[in-house]
Write a structure and sequence with these properties.
The complex is a heterotrimer.
Chain A lengths: L14 H12 L4 E9 L2 E9 L4 E5 L6 H9 L6 E6 L2 E2 L10 E4 L11 H11 L4 H14 L15 H13 L5 E5 L7 H17 L3 E6 L2 H7 L2 E6 L2 E6 L1 H6 L4 H7 L2 E14 L4 E16 L4 E4 L10 E13 L2 E8 L3 E6 H7 L6 E6 L5 E4 L1
Helix pairs in contact in A: 3-4, 3-5, 5-6
Chain B lengths: L5 H14 L1 H7 L14 H23 L6 H6 L1 H34 L5 H8 L1 H4 L2 H12 L6 H8 L7 H26 L3 H8 L4 H29 L3 H6 L10 H11 L1 H29 L1
Helix pairs in contact in B: 1-10, 1-12, 5-10, 5-12, 10-12, 11-12, 14-15
Chain C lengths: L1 H4 L4 H12 L3 H19 L11 E8 L3 H14 L3 E8 L1 H9 L6 E3 L3 H8 L9 E6 L1 E5 L20 E4 L4 H13 L7 E3 L2 H9 L5 E5 H7 L4 E3 L9 E7 L6 H12 L1 H9 L6
Parallel strand pairs in C: 1-2, 1-3, 6-7, 6-8
Antiparallel strand pairs in C: 3-10, 4-10, 5-8, 5-9
The chains are: A alpha+beta, B mainly alpha, C alpha/beta.
Chain lengths: ~375, ~300, ~280
């Protein structure tokens, strides 16, 4: 799409090199931030860089510091350290009303006493535009977002999806150089979410400056963003393209989000040996610290030790839990290697699985994926 | 009767409105009325009715004992209308003073953090517990001709407040403002401060955010507080008579006229009380209707 | 009503009957009367039979008598061991309203014949009231009399802030009488609701002068300066005292009235600024 976007290409092998290039460009165009916020026992230290046109998703569990990072970017929470540069200008210490930063809040926070039009016109008006001019601008933005018919409606009279678009229009009305979205889809029900997600994706793709969205939903992050920054306990644990992160998770949290079994160990040729002693055979040839990941669907379970199986990996396990997972049964196993396996309902019934049952778990080497840690 | 009490429903409406702005924005559609379940439980109904009777009984007694036949002569006196006019004007002015000074004070208490804020809040409510006569004396000591501040007002500007209508307004505002401050502060605390943050990200200074966002959001709370303050100011007696004295047309408000009439002509006192009562009920009921149609 | 019915005395019943005949005063007096009736349950005793005063005597007296009557009360209790004087000081008119509404009192000392008349009109006294002291008006000015007020006429000077009592209270009526006698027209800055608050305005230097009672000027000490004026003779206030018809302790009540009118009692009262009748 833009030159900048190619930086986030999934084929890019080295994250370090990619980040460096982004940083270099962000020095005078885009976002270059290291957000350090100390609040009692909580410590946030997150580096964020993005070029104009980038959509970066900050993904993390609750309490990871996502919202704090967003508030720091908006100027609603002070930085304890680090820096915050946007298009080359230092923003740290600049009050929120003087930052070229637009925010779409999680529950939108549309001013209930103003019409949709006046909500959108509020920003330009505060930033010095004449009343007529700011209203015209607002009307144009609303029309562009397909809300021309709802310009005079109060927020209470808008549907969730419409309110979300008004909030987006309001944030865009100040022509921000940085657009922040806090859990942009969290307030919507599942049905509306699908529509709004695709609309939002289109609008974000059209946006020419930096957009940073914060979410705990991996699907939102992967659909909306070109680059993910995963934070846990105030630290960045992984960043990269959605595809890269989905394929090569580096923490249990991400593995869980993308639905993979993830192990860390030491590679020696085609074998990765874990600290627990278990070994996983892989097709990749590596040496040194490495991750191995494979999907639960790649696991097959057997009551007796399979003899003619082509699977290179075989572990003795005990069923610790069973639960329905979509149209499949998710089996949690402990033993030589703790893992999750997905079985069809029929297979699970034939095996007569129950907590405490002993089984053999097999995974073909070709279905594992090993990469350096 | 209770449902129409402006202060009660006014403040409830405010809280609901302010504490659930997110839902308002999200749920969409016209605000739905609460589902009414028939039959109030007895443990609530009984004390409620006793409470209502307790509040209304003295008023009913007043009506029963009103010397209706002499009422027209009582009301024909110009002093009555003079006192009534002064009461309405001064109570309204006192409410205005309370709003101009009280709303920012409430904002300060609700939205900023400074050492000793708890103490300041307690001090603000002091006029509520102070016997009004003591309040009047305190005002004399502060703003009187010989008062701590008053002597400078007199020396520099030639302003003396006691025995003037301005003095009446100040005495009433002194007693009434805490009602407004407490009411508005409560509403502000219940209101979502993130609206002010949202306004800030859009480029609004703190004052602009207050004026264009917060103020409209807490308007129902301000209105409720203003009505409380107005009603309190209208009935003010102790501080007024102590600070501003009693002179017909200048500082003699209705409560003062009632009190003095009570000394030697209780029938006149009842007639005057009735007028005050009727006017305040008319004003309060009128305001309530306007809000309902406005909101 | 419930409170009162706890005292099953004939007096209480009589009070109740009398109560029914009254018109508006009921409103003002009922609450106070009920409370007083309750206290009377414990304090009243049928000591009237014996000659020696014992038990409690309840005296309703004008507020201006507070200091001197309290002194006399202590003396009375010393002179007659076993007695107790219970005072209720207040505005004469509200006291009168209380008495006519059935408040149990033995003695009533009013600040004006007019307020006493409220009680005698309802046949509330036993025998005719007698004047025991008189009070005269005086001008209270700021300490040292900086405005050089020497007559009632001086008060009409422009720029002088004068407070009077409201015409509805005795000191205001008296002041008006004095002004009328002098043929003067005086516009005060305020008509105060009682004599004490008129005096307070001068004490706090908010007003330059007030027309109050001699006794009040005396009680204020150095905080105000008193200026006598001849017209005050035209508006001398008589203080009547009377034994009440519903008195429950007649012997002690009579003894107290005697003390008030005695040489000893008059000494205390004139010391406070009252004039002998």
């Amino acid at each position: 799409m833009t030159a900048a976007r190619s930086h986030a290409s999934p084929t890019s092998g080295s994250h370090g090199a990619e980040a460096e290039r982004v940083t270099e460009e962000a020095r005078d165009r885009g976002l270059d931030a290291r957000l350090v916020v100390d609040r009692g026992s909580f410590h946030l230290d997150v580096a964020l860089t993005a070029a104009p046109g980038d959509v970066v998703a900050v993904l993390g569990p609750n309490g990871a510091g996502k919202t704090t990072a967003l508030r720091a970017l908006a100027g609603l929470a002070p930085l304890s350290g680090g820096h915050l540069r946007l298009d080359g200008a230092e923003l740290d210490g600049v009050p929120p009303e003087h930052r070229p930063v637009g925010v779409v809040f999680q529950d939108y926070l549309l001013f209930p006493h103003l019409s949709a039009l006046d909500n959108v016109a509020f920003g330009p008006r505060c930033r010095g535009a004449a009343k007529v001019e700011s209203r015209a601008q607002a009307a144009e933005l609303l029309a562009r977002l397909g809300l021309a018919d709802h310009a005079s409606a109060r927020p209470a009279g808008l549907s969730g999806g419409q309110a979300q678009r008004v909030a987006l229009a309001r944030a865009l009305a100040i022509r921000p150089r940085l657009l922040l979205l806090d859990e942009p889809l969290a307030a919507l029900d599942a049905r509306t979410r699908l529509d709004v997600r695709s609309q939002l994706r289109r609008h974000l793709a059209e946006f020419e400056a930096v957009a940073v969205l914060v979410t705990h939903d991996p699907l939102d992050a992967m659909v909306l963003a070109d680059r993910l920054v995963v934070i846990e306990r105030g630290q960045v644990v992984q960043e990269g393209s959605p595809a890269d992160i989905a394929r090569r998770p580096r923490t249990d949290y991400i593995a869980q989000l993308v639905g993979l079994n993830l192990y860390r160990g030491r590679a020696d040729g085609h074998t990765v040996r874990l600290d627990t002693g278990a070994a996983i055979t892989t097709t990749e040839e590596l040496s040194g610290p490495a991750f191995v990941a494979f999907p639960p669907g790649a696991v097959t379970l057997h009551l007796d030790r399979p003899s003619g199986s082509s699977a290179r990996n075989l572990w003795r396990c005990e069923v610790s839990g069973l639960e329905t997972h979509g149209d499949q049964i998710r089996v949690d196993l402990t033993g030589e290697l703790p893992l999750a396996a997905d079985l069809t309902t029929i297979a699970a019934a034939e095996l007569g699985l129950h907590p405490g049952a002993l089984v053999w778990a097999a995974v073909k080497a070709a279905q594992t994926h090993a990469y350096p840690a | 009767m209770t449902r129409h009490d402006p202060t009660v429903s006014g403040s409830t409406g405010t809280t609901t409105h302010a504490s659930a702005p997110a839902e308002d924005a999200l749920v969409g559609g016209p605000r739905r009325g609460r589902v009414r379940r028939s039959g109030a439980p007895l443990p609530l109904l009984l004390p409620a009715l006793v409470g209502l009777a307790f509040l209304l009984l003295p008023l009913i007694a007043l009506l029963v004992r009103t010397p209706w036949h002499s009422l027209p002569t009582q009301l024909a006196s110009t002093e009555v209308w003079q006192a009534l006019r002064l009461s309405l004007v001064s109570a309204t002015a006192a409410t205005a003073v309370s709003m101009v000074l009280g709303v920012p004070l409430a904002w300060l208490l609700a939205r900023t953090d400074f050492p000793g804020r708890g103490l300041v809040r307690a001090l603000v409510t002091l006029p509520l517990v102070l016997p009004p006569v003591v309040g009047g004396v305190a005002l004399l000591l502060a703003l009187g001709r010989n008062g701590v501040v008053g002597r400078w007002l007199d020396a520099w500007f030639g302003i003396t407040l006691p025995f003037t209508t301005a003095g009446v307004v100040l005495a009433e505002a002194f007693v009434a403002m805490p009602f407004l401050v407490i009411s508005v502060e409560g509403t502000l605390r219940a209101a979502d401060p993130r609206y002010e943050e949202a306004a800030a990200t859009l480029g609004a200074s703190r004052f602009t955010a207050f004026r264009r966002i917060t103020l409209p959001l807490i308007a129902p709370g301000i209105a409720a507080g203003a009505v409380l303050a107005w009603a309190r100011a209208l009935g003010e007696f102790g501080a007024t008579i102590t600070f501003a004295g009693n002179f017909p047309g200048r500082t003699q408000t209705m409560p003062l006229a009632v009190y003095l009439a009570l000394q030697n002509d209780p029938a006149a006192a009842i007639a005057l009380s009735l007028v005050l009562l009727a006017v305040s009920i008319a004003v309060l009921a009128g305001l309530r209707d306007r809000w309902i149609t406005a909101s | 009503m419930k409170i009162r019915s706890m005292c099953r005395t004939p007096e209480a019943r009589q009070t109740r009957r009398a109560h029914r005949t009254r018109r508006f005063l009921r409103l003002a007096g009922t609450g106070a009367a009920a409370l007083l009736a309750l206290s009377a349950c414990s304090s009243s005793s049928d000591a009237s039979a014996s000659k020696k005063p014992t038990g409690t005597v309840t005296v309703f007296a004008a507020a201006s008598l507070k200091e001197s009557f309290t002194t006399l009360g202590k003396e009375f209790e010393k002179e007659h061991p076993g007695t107790k004087v219970s005072f209720n000081f207040g505005g004469s008119d509200s006291l009168a309203a209380g008495i006519t509404s059935g408040a149990p009192a033995d003695v009533f000392a009013a600040a004006s014949p007019a307020t006493m008349a409220l009680v005698t009109d309802k046949q509330g006294t036993a025998g005719a009231p007698v004047t025991f002291v008189r009070n005269q008006l005086e001008i209270a000015t700021l300490p040292g009399n900086p405005d050089k007020v020497s007559s009632l006429k001086d008060l009409t000077a422009s720029g002088l802030k004068v407070v009077l009592c409201d015409r509805t209270v005795p000191c205001g009526a008296a002041a008006q009488k004095a002004l009328d006698a002098a043929g003067l027209k005086l516009t005060p800055v305020s008509y105060e609701h009682d004599v004490k608050s008129a005096l307070t305005k001068v004490e706090l230097k908010e007003a330059d002068a007030a027309v109050v009672y001699r006794t009040d000027v005396r009680a204020a000490g150095s905080k105000v300066a008193g200026v006598e004026f001849p017209e005050s003779a035209k508006a001398v206030n008589d203080y009547p005292i009377a034994l009440l018809k519903n008195a429950q302790n007649t012997t002690a009540a009579k003894a107290f009235i005697t003390l008030v009118r005695s040489e000893e009692g008059q000494k205390v009262l004139t010391g406070a600024g009252f004039l002998k009748p």
